[in-house]
Design goal:
- With about 180 residues, this protein is mostly helical.
- It has two domains: about 60 residues, no CATH class; about 100 residues.
- The chain contains nine helices and three strands.
- The protein has a three-stranded antiparallel β-sheet with strand order 1-3-2.
- Helix 5 runs antiparallel to helix 9, helix 7 runs antiparallel to helix 8 and helix 8 runs antiparallel to helix 9.
- The longest helix is centred in the last third of the chain and has 27 residues.
- It is elongated, with a radius of gyration of 21 Å.
């Protein structure tokens, strides 16, 4: 399901923002509100116009692309993708690989859940993600293998500070 912003829908349908909001309210357009922003299902806008995606591209003068609101917009997520591409996470011959994969999955689940949550729940999920990282560090340290020392350093120097910064930011927002 592709989604486009309210502003993109206004341009696409050549209607006012007020009209688009009215369409949403009357269920003529399928939309989701995230925070204070509306995201309209592209197919719903297409159906309202009765045109194919190619026609909509011609109408708008450029290819219509949905606005990105996914977890990949989170800087911490991008750091995690870099860190988790290190050899420690992909070497299935190390004795603790399966446990590391579980912790990595726990991290991403908690990070994603936090991204799409609100208030204190958001901070709680981010803290769960940090706990999964802490467990991964402890597991590698307990194994005592110097083979993965660089990967461990990457985790400690990049990802944990990025996640800690994110948690502090969320807690400041919650407390203010």
């Amino acid at each position: 399901m592709r989604e486009i912003s309210l502003e993109e829908t206004v341009k696409l349908l050549d209607k006012s923002e007020r009209t688009i909001r009215s369409y949403i309210k009357r269920k003529k357009l399928k939309a989701t509100k995230v925070g204070n922003k509306w995201f309209i299902e592209f197919e719903s806008a297409q159906k309202l116009l009765g045109n194919s995606p190619e026609d909509l591209d011609k109408i708008s003068g450029k290819p219509v692309r949905p606005s990105g609101i996914g977890v990949e917009n989170l800087a911490c997520f991008n750091v995690a993708m870099e860190v988790f591409s290190a050899s420690i996470w992909v070497d299935d011959k190390n004795p603790f690989w399966s446990e590391l994969v579980k912790l990595k999955c726990s991290f991403f689940c908690a990070l994603g859940a936090g991204y799409y949550s609100y208030g204190t729940t958001k901070s709680r999920y981010y803290r769960e993600a940090r706990a999964a990282l802490g467990s991964a560090v402890a597991l590698v340290c307990a194994a005592g293998s110097s083979k993965y020392i660089d990967d461990l350093g990457l985790l400690e120097q990049k990802l944990i500070p990025a996640l800690t910064s994110l948690i502090k930011k969320m807690e400041r927002k919650t407390n203010s």
